[in-house]
Amino acid sequence: MARQFRYTRFCAVLPLCFSAPVFANSAPDHALDCLVEPSMVVNLSAPEPGQIDTVFVERNDRVEEGAFIAKLESSLELSAVRLAQHSVDAKAQLALRQKSVEYGQRTLERNRTLVKTSSVSKQQFDKIETEYEISRLQLQEQTERAERASLELDRARAALARRAVQSPISGVIVERYKNDGEYLEGQPIVQIAQLDPLHVSVIAPLSYRAAVSAGTKATVDIQLGNGSSRIEAEVHATDLVADAASNTFGVQLVVPNPDLSIPGGVRCQVRFH
Fold first, then answer.
1. pLDDT single digits (tens) 16-70
2. Is 26-71+173-272 a domain of CATH 3.10.580.10?
3. What is the tens place of the pLDDT at every residue in 132-163?
4. Cα separations in angstroms, 108 against 125, 128, 173
5. Is the whole model's pTM more than 0.90, yes or no?
6. CB 15 within 8 A of CB 202
7. I want to staple 97 with a disulfide (CB 3.0 to 4.6 A). Which of 46, 125, 139, 260 is the partner?
8. For residue 263, is the peptide bond before it cis, meaning its omega torsion is within 30 degrees of 0?
9. CA-based R_g, the chain, Å
10. Residue 29 phi/psi, 5° resolution?
């Protein structure tokens, strides 16, 4: 009876022992359906609420990273910048305090010699020395005010910059949601899609898992209206968690598209090398 049990267990494991190497070394040999998608899609809003002054782009416009997309009404922020700039530029008080310190220092040095010969009383010299220290402290106070004014200017400029909306990526305007004069409170102004590079999404059978990984080369046939375009691609990533219900896993490939000749959202077929 024990001998029969060992034989049964051996027979159960034997197919796995022979089939595992064949599975690991076998490469997928037929095409799979796939979908070409933008590598990134951004619903762009403003960092703070406000009334839209101008939207600079229209649908299908190409934009570069950092391009200005829209500007909020910013008269208050602009006035704050001008006021802070005026405080920074107003250097007359600082120059006056500087001159007062220089004069007080010269007066103090002259009377320091005179007090030794009793030409100047100690009380008068003490007054001169005190006036010099006061002027020096006034200069220090004015210097600190100038530094605060410079910081206020930086803050005012930062607040003004937040009223301008810039594109975080290079891409194409897919949709424009807002117009000039509308009030904005967290809603997106435009949607931007990055089309270079493109991502190709594939749902592959789990049997492909051993042959497909990051760096695997593939041929992608993209279905266009006037035919198809065949390009070479490379696997960027594979899902680490498979779908148990369908016994599949996701694969993502990267396709270069510098001239934007391939649109996003089209169907394709991929064959892994």
1. 333 333 334 444 668 999 999 999 999 999 999 999 999 999 999 999 999 999 9
2. no
3. 888 889 888 888 888 998 999 999 999 999 99
4. 8, 6, 71
5. no
6. no
7. 139
8. no
9. 37
10. -125, 15
Q: How many residues are given for the chain?
A: 273
Six token digits for residue 220: 């992608």
Which amino acid is it at 63? Answer: V
Instruction: Compute the distance between CA of residue 143 and CA of residue 99 in angstroms, rounded to an integer.
Output: 13
User: What would the mean pLDDT of 249-266 be, rounded to a whole number?
Assistant: 92
Location of structure tokens 């100690």: 122
Residue owning tokens 């200005």: 68
Range among 3-7, 29-33, 89-93 rated most confident: 29-33
Mean pLDDT of the region 197-202:
94
Q: How far apart are CA 61 and CA 44, in angstroms?
A: 15
